[in-house]
Amino acid sequence: MKVCILLFCCMLGVQVVCAQPEETINEIEQAYPAYREASLTHRRFKHADILPLVQRLQQAAAVEVRELGTSIEGRAIYQIRVGSGPVKVLLWSQMHGDESTATMALFDLLNFFTAEDEFTAWKKEVLTKVSVYLIPMLNPDGAQRFTRRNRLGVDLNRDALRLQSPEARILKAARDRLQADFGFNLHDQGRVYAAGRSPQSATISVLAPAYNYEKDVNEVRANAMKLIALMNRRLQGLIPGRVGRYNDDFEPRAFGDNIQKWGTSTILIESGGAPGDREKQTIRKVNFVAILTGIHAIANGLYEDEQLEEYERIPFNERLLFDLLIRQATIELLDREYLVDIAINQWEVNDSSPQGFHFNGQVVEWGDLSPFYGYEEIDASGMTAEAGKLYPRRLKNAKALYKLDAQQLIQQGYTHIRMKKLPDPLPDTPFVLLDKQARYQPELRLGSAAHLLLKRNGEVVKVIKNGFVVWEKE
Description:
CATH superfamily of the largest domain: Zn peptidases
Oligomer: single chain
Helix content: 25-40%
Largest sheet: 8 strands, mixed
Number of helices: 13
Number of strands: 21
């Protein structure tokens, strides 16, 4: 019926009205930088960083801020409401403390909804139809340490039944009190997932979680599927080929599965990886557009005529990606040469530096990796891969380091240099610098640190340090 009405409108020449929703969201997307919360610039922000944003929202017109309770360590957990419509939409983010992409996007959305601008009339129309409740940073203690679990060491997404954690009880009580019609369960997933069996990373993965082992589809779950199908069309315009479908096996302890079971049409959004976006600032914008598209569709019932087949066509995400994949290198093992692909991941390790982490590059797999892909790939056909040597002299300081002929040492096969005292800050150098206690690893093996040389005809052509290409022969 809706399609017929739209066609009739267009036949009458009311093209602006027929095209307006899509055009308006296009325009909002273009204006996104105006709504991007400028104080959140990286993933490792903490509860103290969002408190000024919550306090600012408490002063905004037509916004309700409510403290729902506190975490194990006493950090406040807030619910922020915009809109006054009869359809209730509940969104929660950072249930896992190290999954912060959607929290940034939620504050971007709140900036959008509270701004007075050329979209004010559009927003008012939406917000008279829906009431939007947002719970950013459900796990503030985990966020403090940028770790998945809460202060008890409990995974909140496995506490939906026993409700032993205060954070889990807060989410359950909010859902029950509101009896939300729709729920957005907002997470991050690793960079290792591809959208189907392709080299394209699953920048976003979506799911209408199952509510039983049989994966039955009732009206509640079907509405979530239909909404995802509509959102996916929008996402394909932003990140074509980079949307995957999360594993839909039923997890009886998970919140998404149970909230679906309790009668709220639940949409899982997992923010994955994208080339050149380690801090997920582009993916943050994708979340903003996807969630806004969903809220608008809920407000106007646009999802109702979607076909479930469109949801089913979204490919499952597959664990197929590595940070660096070296293809067809020759390595020596047990006095023989073998042709292998070498997969390297650049793990993030939390620390107390201003950046909040450092990388730990590791050789995580080798052999025939032809079904897999890398964010970066090296064709090492005709090359040998080997560990570098330790420079025989211990250097006194950075000045002595700078006096060395780096290219000559590289061609001699040296990759590690021991120093009496490591410079602070560490200099930008292709060499791995070791203090007197650090262990030097003399061989390349599975599970080892990703420090290696690639040689062609005995000449070094690439140096890989900690999983990154740091030197190449010109």
